[in-house]
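[User] At your convenience, examine this fold.
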Amino acid sequence: MGLIESIRLAFSSLSANKMRSLLTMLGIIIGISAVITITTIGNSIQQTLKNTFAQINMNYFYVMLTTKPYDEENSDVTQDEYYDSVYMTDEDMITDDMLNELLEKYPDQFKIAMSEYYANGETINSKNEYVKTTITGITDGYLEQGKLDLISGRNITQRDNTERKHTAVVSDVFVKQYFNENENPVGKRISFSINNAETQEFTIVGIYEYSEAKLGKFPAGSKEIDKVTPVFIPLDTVYEFKGILNPTYEYTVILWNTDYDTSVVEENVRTFFEEQYQHNKYWTAYVENEQSMLSMINNVLNVITIAISVIAAISLIVGGVGVMNIMLVSIIERTKEIGIRKALGAQNSSIRLQFVVEAVIICLIGGIIGIITGIMNGVIIGKIVSYLVNNIYTDYMDIIIISIQPSVTAIIISVIFSMLTGIFFGYYPANKASKMNPIDALRYD
């Protein structure tokens, strides 16, 4: 008897005992569905994080000052005395000269993404309505790092900062508040009253699209004229207004060009700041790659997903034992059938194949049902999470992109594992059936 005939007999036997076959598959179904559900949730969390971080940009380095570790061998003071003497001065901080040197040394690789709030401002439109805003100083990488899209015009540039120009990038909301319909704001000059005192005039060079998820949600029921949005001007211009001639920073954000390899730009920025601080007695610069943080989060999620999946897969062993138990019962019930087939000349290998195939089909069908159930569970959980996010975290729906993504690898492994389970736990009953004495089998009542 060949494989096709064994498969036909297996389905015939299963259809004759539908309820028992379903209960036999139950352990396999629960185990596989648990694994698929967990891996689907893990994959979906990873994809959701990836999509969400893609909305806020992760290709930047966070450079901050940190104390150098105590070197006992080369120090003439105790560890406590060393750390007691550590304090930061302006000479220790990151300077504009350092950042400009970095940009000159590695042209096109980096942009500085810094910002600083300056003041509240207001102006009066052609309808004699007050338009309120906030004025914030930025560098050329800020809008790109924050994933704020320019609708028209240009961004604040490094030259704007170097020359401390009175240029401004305004929001599309501000344009509607201040300008007439179809009027082009780019190139227009506009004056703001700063904190109800001094007045500063700026030339609009660009318009960005306001995102409530990225910049803040307006109060519910706000009128169009009452919506307050930032006006971005050069950061160095803000320092000029504040009387700061040589600004220094405890930290800085450096955006890197994705056309360059991550490892190359990271090595460049680390080497640069190590050289800048090699002669500083107490301080050095620590460079944190935000994309590495995302990779670390994904690795942790992978470990957790695998660990929980392995625990869930233990139920497959229980399901396999159930398959073996039912197969033994089935063999006892079909003893006469086995005796007749052997009396008619069936080989031991044919009998063994018949029952192994039956066990494999039970596990395979259970595995397929488990996979479908697991995917459905993942989708249902995803829909529930999406509903909760839509109703609880409405402010962030522009950047939280929930993605339900079943693991193809887990599905393939589950199908193979269910078949191996059938072979492993079905072989013993099948082998026992093949070794039956046909005379004893025919006498069995």
Summary: The mean pLDDT is 81.
